Amino acid sequence: MRRNQEVTKAVDSIAGKPVEMIIQGTAVLMRAMGDVANRKRIPDVIYLMTHTQAFARYNIARGTEIVLDANRFGKRPKILLAEKGGAEGYEGALVWGRMLIDAGVYVEDIVPIPGALYKDGTGVERINSFTEAEPVVRWCVKNGVEDLTIVAPGFHIARCFAGFVAVANAIAPHLNVFADVSSGFLWDEDTSHSQGTLLGTPTDFCVTEIARWLSYDQPAKPGDVLAYLDRRDRRVKG
User: Fold this and answer.
1) Which domain holds residue 198?
2) pTM of the model
């Protein structure tokens, strides 16, 4: 990990948080990284978190792997994609959908989800983890989905999972949200993240992502996410 300006700011931010919150955040991250063991082998629905080109192929590869494994058992889970991208560099469902089809996913199993874009103070269309979560969760409610698996790189999974849990708690507390982690990238390779505004390595982003998440107000705080995970696991295993 490099102590560049962003990482240093993130470390200082984390250090200023209560110890209990840091421990809870670590617990959420560990549970999210291993969450694939808690869901059934074939998920009902998969959502691929939006990313720039640097990490797109890894999310797509993991989503494809899950779907093709299900297909071998005669199952056809849906893959949901944000319909359009904003200024951050996400290429949209048309581009990602084509990549999924080329990898062997049935076109009928790819579902573009509108509604994730918002306009910032300058009128620029953008997308973030929270604006992605709400239309996806509402689609799941409308279509009677009980289990939703979100796919993201390891450095991003805790924060985006917390966002989805916050939305599910608010509008669909019965929805079982699971995390799944894409991989294959080099953790020490220079790249970009967070709407293309952060430069560094994925290891650096582990720190900046945790710092961003711990700065959130309710309802995405680590203690709330842990409580949700406990309730979800009791439902699934009970």
Assistant:
1) 5-233
2) 0.90
